[in-house]
Please model this.
Amino acid sequence: MDNMEDKKSHYYSKFPDVDVKIHTIAESLRRHLYIFKTITGVFSFNKIDLGTKVFIENMHIPKEASVLLDLGCGYGPIGIVLGYESPQSSVHLIDINKRAIWCAKQNIKLNLPDQTKDVIALSGNYFKPIKSRNLKFDGIYMNPPLRQGRKNFLDLFYRIQNYLKKNGSFQFVIRKKMGAPYISKYLAETFPNERVEILCKRSGYWVFKCFH
Ligand SMILES: C[S@@+](CC[C@H](N)C(=O)[O-])C[C@H]1O[C@@H](n2cnc3c(N)ncnc32)[C@H](O)[C@@H]1O
Model:
């Protein structure tokens, strides 16, 4: 049993109750080398998650200036790649875990030193940190916390619609074993008016893009 389970603390706890150890990850993503500082108590703190990697390599990134959101950002790999690949865009990163946000802030400074005004990490419960600002996004990106249950993720779909601009997209990755085929069927049945594409199926992960 690892320390997190032992103390009933999770990577999605607001204040993870595990000792702090700092790690450094070096990873080449979309042919660019990134350095990520991570700490214990944060999702996949010792190496970049395989699902995250498959997602980053295959997600669609708008070429034109856009407003983008990395929802449940952890230490920030998805949002930071969005910021690097789309430097004219503004990117928000949100996570409930305060340690994750601490890391994401360090990683923005480390990897995108000239974009610290346009790539912003905020802590809080999903859309709460931006609620008062009436923001709508061209793209919302997510490697969802399915350990909290599939229902939580499916419920989030209804809320995400309110934060997407017309023609905006919601892109996410799901492990096949964690129910990607079920989610694909669920989306087709529940949102018949939305276009849902599977951008890739690789290494046991499916990457989805849903258009609003
Ligand atoms: C599967 S991890 C992905 C982390 C990161 N995007 C990555 O790919 O490495 C899901 C993230 O969602 C965050 N999370 C869970 N529930 C949340 C909530 N209610 N509001 C904001 N973030 C949440 C967790 O803390 C965790 O960092």
Observations:
- The radius of gyration is 16 Å.
- The chain has one domain: 49-211.
